[in-house]
Amino acid sequence: MNFGGCERPNQGNPSLDPWRLAHGAGAVYSMAIDSMSGTTTTTFVLVPGAWLGGWAWKRVTPLLEQNGHDVHAVTLTGMGERVHLASKDVGMETAIQDVLNLVKYNDLDDFVLVGHSFAGKVAAAVADRAHEKVQKVIYVDAFRPEIVREPQGGFDPTREFGPPPEGGDAIPLTEEIVDRIGKDVTGSNRRWMMSMVTPWPIKLAKDPITLSENYDETKETYVFCSLSGDPVDEIIAGKWGKLNGPYKVIETGHWPMITKPEELAKDLVSLTK
Question: What is the DSSP string of 207-263?
């Protein structure tokens, strides 16, 4: 794995979240929070990947907040509830500014930046530009930057995920893609996720980022997903580049915030220590 206009029924209705229906509003949250007791309060900025919005973190956010952490889930322009702002001009610079503005207007400092999927590019660029404010960067099944001072991370997503609809500038998430990189999203979880996703603006993938000497690779940490298609064992062994920090591995596909929210929340907290 590399890294509108349709009505989406029931979008944004928490009562239709199958996880809540199965577990109740607080039972599983409390179980996971108990296992995270004794942690230091941390501010998290959560940046979702392709096809997602801030909604994707809705099962992780309460787990962190109930343990005293401050959580800010971003929706990048052109996706999620900001899909109405999608255009051919929405690219990496817009996404980077989405996060930088959230940091600025919420007066955030010393925060942990979490980037999922392609949004590892966004997280890396923000960690470069706001280096004095970022405590750590956690890459969740995500693009991981090379420590170079040249453009990187741009790629053509149509080669892996197929072309957009005729005349379109964004790639929809299909059942075939989910089967390939997140087959453990099944049943009611899949129906819920597919009712919420929005097309992924191509320019977000094609645009590269360029890091400066301000980017501090020693702040990097990682969460790898063993069922998403990446060769996790080889990555850990260093065959795909050096890892600059600690890591966790979750036995799940590309969307651990949906399939394994408790485990992901615990790993996020653990990686801040």
Answer: --B---TT--GGGEEEEEETTSSS-HHHHHTTBTB---S-EEEESS-S-HHHH-HHH
| Host domain of residue 220 | 24-271
> Any residues with CB less than 8 A from the CB of 69 and at least 6 apart, and which?
39, 41, 42, 43, 44, 269
Numbers of helices and strands, H then E, in the chain: 12, 8
pLDDT per residue over 197-241, tens digit each?
Answer: 999 999 999 999 999 999 999 999 999 999 999 999 999 999 999
| CA 25/CA 20 separation, integer angstroms | 6
Two tokens, residue 233: 């064992």
Cα distance between residue 226 and residue 253, in whole Å: 7
pLDDT-wise least confident of 11-20, 31-40, 48-57, 138-147 = 11-20
The domain that contains 130 carries what CATH number? 3.40.50.1820
List, for residues 31-83, the tens digit of each pLDDT value: 344 445 455 799 999 999 999 999 999 999 999 999 999 999 999 999 999 99
Does some domain include residue 183?
Answer: yes
Number of domains in the chain: 1
